[in-house]
Fold this protein.
Amino acid sequence: GAVVSQHPSRVICKSGTSVKIECRSLDFQATTMFWYRQFPKKSLMLMATSNEGSKATYEQGVEKDKFLINHASLTLSTLTVTSAHPEDSSFYICSARRGGGRSYEQYFGPGTRLTVT
Amino acid sequence: ILNVEQSPQSLHVQEGDSTNFTCSFPSSNFYALHWYRWETAKSPEALFVMTLNGDEKKKGRISATLNTKEGYSYLYIKGSQPEDSATYLCALPGAGTASKLTFGTGTRLQVTL
């Protein structure tokens, strides 16, 4: 149980276009989903926290107009990179949490490699 | 900002060797520590969630200990196998119910025959 899918796994887009990444919890309802970004040789950096039916909470330094997050249901959150630029090229990964509290595990998707040309 | 450090950054062992690595964190305001295993091209997999000082958890050949007073956790792998090759991440939640995890940079383990 506790499977999270992410689509697409890889995407190449041209500068100026927008890209949408989907994160789905397949066998459980996720009260909260998280979006992370990984820079080369760095750890996972939290971008935003997404709760179903409410606005996402963005981390300091993350542009909310650039990285649009929608959490329309308990099983789906989307991240849209708007007007993508080469510096947005990165590995984006989502996670979903089944319950509340800091000792609850987060279940991760396999990630999306975004390349902006 | 929570400072989570892992060492070593990478490790290369032979099949059958036992190994261990460290996650260090601030000892104040500790709530929980998560260990994950992240194999290439797969999703990070939750290994353990540890909450109590002195906790020891085990899953097959992998075990972990926790010392919240001095701010460290050890992950041990007994009799390493090639399939143990992965990056091992530790993460701690911050204050508040949002439970945002701060990750260490990970220890990349390579097990060869």
Observations:
- Chain A is about 0% helix and 50% strand.
- Chain A touches chain B at residues 4, 32, 34, 41-44, 46, 49, 57, 59, 93, 95, 97, 100-111 (CB under 8 Å).
- The longest strand of chain A covers residues 44-51.
- The mean pLDDT of chain A is 91.
